[in-house]
Structures are given as structure tokens and as C-alpha cells.
Inverse folding.
């Protein structure tokens, strides 16, 4: 067992609680990104046992980081919702220069790239506004919407696989961020939400890893165009207005978010 991965997992888990700061980004910074992708993909092979020594300690650390920091975020969201959502929006915008740079490394954006970007932006806007209209910020798990939670968990598994995308961003996009953060309460956890979302993350990571690995290797510029579109569409619908908190602190949080995400992106090769 590679027990050093426990602390690495803690850092990745903390990152995945904050939209715009991804666990995949932290994996790149820690120098374990390629091994992470290889190990997750390897779970679907005959040599799956050989990858457990890397993934098991990492999973323990990520779980601890997620639960610990999500409880902090839940408290902050209850007390300072406007300021926190401005911070989230700044973090999302701050990661865009990195994604733009990565997307144009092999080929400049052409008409097809822009079409994918705009389609992804429209899709993200539709999903996020639809989630807000139907479920609000604290959607409750029921038998009729369990599939939606599972799908959100599946989509959030991309946080493990794509630098620049966080699980928190995906949950925010689906309108489930506050529900997920509340479900991880140390004093009153919601086992149902944890199970359904967690099942989606686990299944998504296993089944999507090979596809995402292929996308990044074969069509990286198109992949990053889609990610940029998702973030732009989500920010457009999720950026909060003023009136529910301090305008000055909200603007400062927005600027701080941009700077934090941009500085972290500079750490990547």
C-alpha cells in the first residue's frame, strides 16, 4: 500500500469540495495524475488487484478531505451564501485561462471547436437553470429523482479524470451542491444521498475512465472546448446577484477566486 497517498487524497478531496479547484488539478500538481488515470482504467482489467495499493489509500484520504471540508463549506453557505457563490464564480472563471491554453496546445480553435463550446455552454445553462427551477438549491432525494442524483454523481466523477473540472462544479451545475454538502454532516449524515451520489461517482469513474483517457489523448482541443463551454454556461446562470449579503465582500471574494484558481493553474506543466 502506498500510504503517502492518504495525504494526497486529502488534498484532492478538499479541492473537489470547491468549484473551480479540481482534484484532477491537484493530482497534476502532486505528480500522480497519469498513474491515477492508469490505475482507475486498470480496475477494469485482469490486473485490477495490482492497482488497489495506489487507489485504496488515495480513496481514504479523499473521503476524509471531502467530509471534513464539506462540513466547513456547508456552514459557510448557510451564513454567507451570496459571498460564497461569488467566490465560486471567481474560481470557475479563474481556471479558464488554463483550459484555453490546454485546448490550443495542439491546434487553434476553429469553427468546429466554437460550435462544441457554444453547444456545451447552452447545455450547461439549460441544466443549471432547469435544476434551480425544479429543485432549488436544496433538492431532496426521492424515489422518483434518484436517477438524477446518480447521473450527477456519474458526471462528477470526471473531477478525478479531467484537470480543470471539479466534482463540486458538476454538483453545482446540477443544483445538488448544497444537498451534497449537507448530506456529509458529521452529526446527521444523509446516508441515502451519500449512497446514490457515491454510487454514481464510482460507476462513472470505472466506466468513463477509458473514454476520457482517449478523448484527452486523441481530441484534446475539442475536449477542452467542451469544458470551457460548460463553465461559461454554468457561470452565466449561477452568478448570484447582490442584496443578500455584503457587496464589498462579494466583489472581493469574486476577485480572490479568480486569483486563486489562476495561480493554481500556473503550477501545472
Amino acid at each position: 500500500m502506498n500510504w503517502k497517498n492518504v495525504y494526497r487524497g486529502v488534498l484532492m478531496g478538499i479541492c473537489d469540495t470547491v468549484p473551480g479547484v479540481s482534484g484532477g488539478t491537484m493530482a497534476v500538481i502532486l505528480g500522480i495524475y497519469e498513474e491515477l488515470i492508469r490505475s482507475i482504467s486498470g480496475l477494469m482489467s485482469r490486473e485490477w488487484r495490482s492497482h488497489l495499493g495506489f487507489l485504496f489509500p488515495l480513496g481514504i484520504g479523499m473521503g476524509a478531505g471531502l467530509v471534513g471540508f464539506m462540513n466547513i463549506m456547508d456552514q459557510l453557505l448557510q451564513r454567507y451564501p451570496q459571498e460564497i457563490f461569488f467566490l465560486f464564480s471567481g474560481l470557475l472563471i479563474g481556471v479558464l485561462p488554463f483550459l484555453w491554453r490546454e485546448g490550443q496546445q495542439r491546434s487553434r480553435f476553429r469553427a468546429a471547436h466554437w460550435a462544441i463550446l457554444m453547444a456545451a455552454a447552452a447545455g450547461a445553462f439549460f441544466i443549471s437553470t432547469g435544476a434551480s427551477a425544479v429543485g432549488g438549491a436544496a433538492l431532496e432525494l426521492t424515489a422518483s429523482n434518484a436517477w438524477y442524483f446518480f447521473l450527477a454523481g456519474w458526471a462528477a466523477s470526471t473531477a478525478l479524470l479531467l484537470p480543470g473540472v471539479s466534482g463540486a462544479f458538476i454538483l453545482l451545475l446540477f443544483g445538488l451542491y448544497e444537498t451534497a454538502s449537507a448530506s456529509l454532516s458529521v452529526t446527521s449524515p444523509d446516508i441515502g444521498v451519500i449512497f446514490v451520489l457515491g454510487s454514481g461517482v464510482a460507476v462513472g469513474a470505472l466506466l468513463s475512465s477509458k473514454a476520457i483517457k482517449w478523448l484527452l489523448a486523441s481530441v484534446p482541443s475539442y475536449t477542452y472546448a467542451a469544458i470551457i463551454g460548460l463553465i461559461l454556461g454554468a457561470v452565466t446562470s449561477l452568478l448570484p446577484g447582490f442584496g443578500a449579503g455584503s457587496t464589498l465582500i462579494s466583489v472581493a471574494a469574486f476577485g480572490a477566486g479568480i486569483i486563486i484558481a489562476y495561480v493554481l493553474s500556473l503550477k501545472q506543466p
Remarks:
- Confidence is low (pLDDT under 50) at residues 133-137.
- The chain has one domain: 5-266.
